[in-house]
């Protein structure tokens, strides 16, 4: 929604907005754009009366702002529908879908297109360091967008990406998530199928090979060209790591090495994301060599293994991981980079799916590469954390407050330790609190 607000501002609209909890980096970006923010849902923000209200999918009936809009019959629309009508309908949309890696892959593709001189528009659910902003209109037909499967609004339960009508569609992976809106995995597959249905026959669906859930989506019907990326033999696009941390890897096209990426990122997941971005850019006319050159200068997205500070030899990272698979791959990438140095994982299981306990059995297995784990127990948790503590091989401590975690870590960390903090929210500014304590200790 912050990115949509930025795009609307660029189109010349006067934009204001509200949210319950506005925090950086998005709050900073919006303020810099001159977009007025309201903390909470004060109804005075509707004076003067707006021409249209774009309602985010986190808003539900009972919200005072929503009720005000409905009671007064104000024009309203979902964010994805607004995007389609005002920006996407005449563009070559390049959409990145999947349970994991959407933000990173979208950022990589946008940077490849930019470095190739194509000046794409983009909308990304994060702030890519190469651009410093999460959205822009662009100066070419190309528009790169993070294609989220979450629902569009309380009045439109279709996935957001159904509105985007991509010409290039990347299907990175597919697992069960968003248990608050999807009954089961098949319900998510159906939405992915609906997105595939919108790709024109002269478009491209780029899918991860050897991914059974993606394959079953395509078996429901696909009317476009298909290409595969990954380890399976049928994949037109493949990679081969040259270094174990995947900071250097070969790119293969039709089983022939066509170039080598050497970049600042680590992890097998990022290597795969890069391959998808290269293949998608190739569909848009960028040569493989130019894409590889662009990735050598790619800077990761904020909150993706972002180093927040190094104090007294202790490195503190911020990462958006909140699903067991993402937690495991993030830890794997860090472990391959630092070897036997100590990793302290700090996790806030705050997503609706986590709170419901859907992934609780997988959670204790996801952090086994960490030397120790510190968990913040969310309020209104539908299950007990005691069971995952018992099932974990790595030592786990559970806390009721962020300050409790900071107190423990400040008194136990040593030079050479790596603190990996993972959450899809603000985590009560734990990174800044920890770094300050370390500096003052």
Q: What is the CA–CA distance across the termini?
A: 40 Å
Oligomer: single chain
- Tell me the β content: 15-25%
* Percent helix range: 25-40%
Keywords: ATP-binding, Cell cycle, Cell division, Cell shape, Cell wall biogenesis/degradation, Ligase, Magnesium, Nucleotide-binding, Peptidoglycan synthesis
Organism: Agaribacter marinus
Function: Reutilizes the intact tripeptide L-alanyl-gamma-D-glutamyl-meso-diaminopimelate by linking it to UDP-N-acetylmuramate.
InterPro entries: Mpl, Mur-like_cat_sf, Mur_ligase_C, Mur_ligase_C_dom_sf, Mur_ligase_cen, Mur_ligase_N, MurCDEF_pg_biosynth
Could you give a quick summary of the protein structure above?
The protein has 441 residues and is an alpha/beta fold. It has 15 helices and 22 strands.
């Amino acid at each position: 929604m912050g990115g949509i607000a930025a795009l609307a501002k660029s189109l010349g609209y006067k934009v204001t907005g509200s949210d319950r909890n506005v925090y950086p980096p998005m709050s900073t970006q919006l303020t810099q754009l001159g977009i007025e923010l309201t903390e909470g849902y004060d109804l005075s923000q509707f004076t003067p009366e707006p021409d249209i209200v774009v309602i985010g999918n986190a808003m539900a009936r009972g919200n005072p702002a929503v009720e005000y809009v409905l009671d007064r019959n104000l024009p309203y629309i979902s964010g994805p529908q607004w995007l389609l009508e005002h920006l996407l309908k005449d563009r070559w949309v390049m959409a990145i879908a999947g349970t994991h890696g959407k933000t990173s892959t979208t950022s990589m593709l946008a940077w490849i297109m930019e470095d190739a001189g194509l000046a794409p528009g983009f909308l990304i659910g994060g702030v890519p360091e190469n651009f410093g902003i999460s959205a822009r209109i662009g100066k070419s037909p190309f528009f790169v967008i993070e294609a989220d499967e979450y629902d569009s609004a309380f009045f439109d339960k279709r996935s957001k990406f159904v509105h985007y009508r991509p010409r290039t569609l990347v299907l990175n992976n597919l697992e069960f998530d968003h248990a608050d809106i999807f009954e089961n995995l098949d319900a998510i597959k159906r939405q992915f199928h609906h997105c595939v249905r919108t790709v024109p026959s002269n478009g491209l669906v780029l899918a991860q090979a050897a991914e059974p859930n993606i394959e079953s989506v395509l078996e429901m019907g696909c009317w476009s060209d298909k290409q595969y990326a990954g380890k399976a033999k049928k994949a037109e696009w493949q990679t081969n790591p040259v270094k174990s941390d995947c900071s250097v890897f070969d790119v293969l096209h039709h089983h022939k090495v066509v170039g080598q990426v050497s970049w600042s990122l680590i992890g097998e997941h990022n290597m795969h994301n890069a391959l998808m971005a290269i293949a998608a850019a190739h569909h848009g006319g960028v040569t493989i060599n130019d894409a590889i050159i662009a990735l050598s200068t790619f800077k990761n997205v904020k909150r993706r293994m972002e180093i927040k500070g190094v104090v007294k030899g202790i490195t503190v990272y911020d990462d958006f991981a909140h699903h067991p698979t993402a937690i495991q791959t993030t830890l794997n990438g860090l472990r391959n980079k630092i070897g036997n140095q100590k990793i302290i994982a700090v996790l806030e299981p705050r997503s609706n799916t986590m709170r419901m306990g859907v992934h609780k059995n997988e959670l204790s297995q996801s952090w086994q590469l960490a030397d120790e784990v510190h968990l913040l127990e969310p309020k209104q948790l539908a299950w007990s954390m005691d069971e995952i503590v018992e099932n974990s091989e790595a030592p786990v401590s559970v806390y009721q407050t962020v300050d409790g975690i900071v107190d423990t870590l400040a008194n136990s960390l040593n030079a050479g330790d790596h603190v990996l903090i993972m959450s899809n929210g603000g985590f009560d500014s734990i990174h800044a609190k920890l770094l300050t304590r370390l500096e003052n200790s």
